[in-house]
Design brief:
The complex is a heterodimer. By secondary structure, chain A is an alpha/beta fold. In chain A, about 30% of the residues lie in helices and about 25% in strands. The chains are: A alpha/beta, B mainly alpha. At the A-B interface, helix 2 and helix 4 of A face helix 7 and helix 8 of B.
């Protein structure tokens, strides 16, 4: 489980970027964070694995086999250890384009191998086999040897999901994982992320309420740094208007959710 | 423009670089070259080993110099090193760049004696000023997302460098190293004349013994070395540019 308590972050001029954000996510939950651009969604997500340090508040990770840990209060060494078990899927994929898909997946366990081994790219055959299985899970095993720079956006995102799976994480974070993808690829990616929530808490930032309505178990909404909603992922038109500040409606057509359009 | 012309004329007069002297020099030089011709081809076989030694000095100087320069570049990049380390390293690189390799060699010869080793060390140190700065600038421009990707899985600084930094700078690193090798070939000849051995020493020795035909042979070998290296370097740099690697 991950518990976020009272996260606050301000600019030097005093403007609050995050204002007392608090929520919990446990195993079995797939929580989508919605909100207008600049609301503080990605800032909140980055606080969850220490990529951003808030001015105050805590991010407590509780797992079955260890003591609760507050990410905001641990030192750099401990933070690196904690990050070994936090998988992150980024909007920009964050893949090393000159390396192959397989090598990029194996990078997921860099924090778990010694510096000496990593200096010689010393991944074992067993690790390579596991990485290949992770690629197989996302239907990318046939492209394991290809440089990721030559892959399409959807393929690169699948490799980054495989990297997260390979880490065997206890928490999965996804920062706008489908923003750069067409609707078909976006649906594929969401279908790959959803089952992972059965194994660990999953928290993702999205710009597509129709996707969170279909795949998430819960939605929280952030606006101007404040958490304004935490509940059912199927949002009413009124709720959408409250979040995004203009009248919107979800349109459903057969199996597909077409993008939200303004009236 | 007028000021530039006036300053050029004034400084030429002060240092004696007049057109009259230039034309005299050209005629004297051509006459001297005429005295050197033809080359002494019998000296050609015995000059091959010194030529190879010069190439080896340049090669080793480039390899070791590149490795050292990468370390300095990492310490001089503002996205990797803290400001204090970065500033001190940049100052060191700037100072090193201002010291000619020949001065470094003279100091090393005093320390280690004559021979190839001071030449290799001088060329290695000489790489820092050029490669250290160029690579540091390249590192500062890399995609920060790669660094973030490695940090987000718990990677430490060394792992960030190996997996996040080096793959991104590798084409530039190879390209600059090849260019530096071209420069080091010429420098190894020069350093050879002042104690590092190789074909530069043969050239200096031949002139010293007034064996101008033998000296001409050495000049031909040097020209072939430098030209051959430049062509090879150009071919390999083009390969790196189009394919991103040498293989």
């Amino acid at each position: 489980m991950i518990e976020v308590k009272n996260l606050t972050k301000s600019l030097p001029n005093g403007r609050k970027l995050l204002d007392g954000i608090s929520f919990k996510v446990k195993k079995g939950e797939f929580v989508g964070i919605l909100g207008p651009s600049g609301a503080g969604k990605t800032l909140t997500l980055r606080c969850l694995n220490g990529l951003l340090k808030p001015d105050s508040g805590s991010v407590i990770i509780k797992s079955e086999n260890s003591q609760p840990l507050d990410i905001c209060k641990i030192d750099k060494r401990e933070l690196r250890r904690v990050r070994q078990k936090i998988g992150v899927i980024f909007q920009g994929y964050h893949l090393v384009k000159r390396l192959s898909a397989l090598e990029n997946v194996m990078i997921g366990r860099l924090g778990q191998i010694s510096t000496w081994r990593s200096m010689f790219y010393g991944f074992t055959d067993a690790e390579a086999e596991e990485a290949l299985k992770a690629l197989d899970q996302v239907k990318m095993s046939q492209m394991a040897g290809m440089q990721t720079g030559s892959l399409s956006g959807g393929e690169m995102q699948r490799v980054s999901i495989a990297r997260a799976i390979f880490q065997s994480p206890t928490l999965l974070l996804a920062d706008e994982p489908i923003s750069n993808l067409d609707p078909s690829n976006a649906k594929t990616i969401m279908k790959m992320i959803k089952p992972l929530s059965e194994l660990m808490p999953v928290v993702g930032v999205f710009h597509q309420p129709e996707m969170t309505a279909k795949y998430c178990t819960r939605v929280i909404a952030i606006k101007e740094g404040k958490l304004i909603y935490d509940g059912d992922p199927k949002l009413s038109n009124k709720r959408l208007e409250e979040i995004y500040g203009e009248e919107l409606e979800l349109i459903e057509q057969q199996e597909h959710m077409i993008p939200v359009t303004a009236k | 423009m007028i000021i530039l012309l006036a300053v050029t004329e004034a400084t030429a007069i002060v240092c004696g670089a007049t057109f009259g002297k230039l034309s005299d020099g050209i005629f004297n030089g051509l006459a001297f070259l005429g005295n050197m011709y033809p080359p002494d081809w019998s000296a050609f076989p015995e000059m091959l080993e010194p030529a190879l030694q010069s190439i080896i000095i340049a090669f080793l100087g480039t390899v070791f110099g590149t490795i050292i320069s990468v370390v300095f570049a990492l310490l001089a990049a503002n996205n990797l090193a803290n400001p204090w380390v970065r500033n001190i390293t940049r100052v060191f690189i700037a100072i090193e760049r201002s010291i000619p390799e020949i001065i470094i060699l003279i100091l090393l010869v005093a320390a280690f004696g004559l021979g190839a080793m001071p030449g290799v060390v001088a060329l290695s140190i000489g790489c820092i000023g050029m490669l250290g700065k160029l690579l540091a600038d390249i590192i500062e421009e890399i995609d920060p997302l790669m660094i973030e990707a490695i940090e987000s899985v718990g990677g430490n600084k060394i792992q960030v460098i190996i997996f996040g930094v080096l793959p991104q700078i590798m084409p530039n690193l190879i390209s600059y190293a090849l260019f530096r090798f071209e420069i080091n070939i010429r420098l190894s000849v020069l350093l050879g004349a002042v104690g590092a051995g190789g074909v530069g020493y043969e050239l200096e020795y031949s002139f010293g013994m007034l064996q101008y035909h033998r000296a001409f042979t050495a000049v031909i070998i040097i020209i072939a070395m430098v030209f051959g290296t430049e062509r090879l370097s150009y071919f390999l740099r083009k390969k790196v540019k189009t394919e991103g690697a040498l293989t």
